[in-house]
Amino acid sequence: MDLVEIKAAARKDAFARRKAAHGTQIPGAAGHLAEVLAGYRGVPLAGYMPIRTEIDPLPVMAEAAAYGPVGVPVIQGAGLPLKFSRWQPNGALREGPFGAQVPEVDDYFEPEILVVPLVAFDAKGGRLGYGGGFYDRTLELLRGKRATLAIGFAFDAQEAEDLPLEPTDQPLDMLITERRILSFRK
Fold first, then answer.
1. What family does the database annotate (predicted)?
2. Sign of the C-alpha dihedral computed for residues 173, 180, 119 and 95 taken in this order
3. How many CB atoms lie within 10 A of CB 115?
4. What whole-number distance in Å separates Cα of residue 55 and Cα of residue 30?
């Protein structure tokens, strides 16, 4: 099998685990995320609008929006980094690429913290995404300008061993699940 096939198989397994975990979500699953982000009040932050069976960061994003700018990713096109548009709880939204909601009016800014969705993660800060490379390109761009904190947010069940990673895959600084906080900073 080549790397593309290996990644596809890893994604298939991880999607199944995530779907099972999503079906048994416990109330307050974002509690650890809220705890971590409370230490960064006012720092420009980007979360995401959950799709399919992704763990939901919206309650924590709403809390953070009371202290500073919060954005969501807007896909600009294949092969391009993401841009982040300011988001407000109850703000007007429109459908963006892949079915994710984005603000009706684009108001772009550069976040210093990214709460990153994922398909699978490992115990070393590796992340397997959907395969488009959007977050890898974006993190590389932002980290080239300033310190940028990448926090993966997922269900515990999404952890995997031996993820098929490439040199272009950007590592996470932290991973937060419904049960724990992992830090990978050196």
1. Belongs to the 5-formyltetrahydrofolate cyclo-ligase family.
2. negative
3. 26
4. 8
Q: Evaluate if pTM is beyond 0.90.
A: yes
- CA-only gyration radius of the chain, Å: 15
| Integer Cα distance of 152 and 172 in angstroms | 6
152-175 b/e (C-beta count within 10 Å ≥ 16 → b): bbbbebbbbeebbbeeebbbbbbb
Both tokens assigned to 126:
């590796």
**Fold (CATH) for 3-156:** Rossmann fold (3.40.50)
pLDDT tens, 107-155?
999 999 999 999 999 999 999 998 889 999 999 999 999 999 999 999 9
Render pLDDT for 5-16 as a digit per residue (tens, 0 to 9). Answer: 888 888 888 888
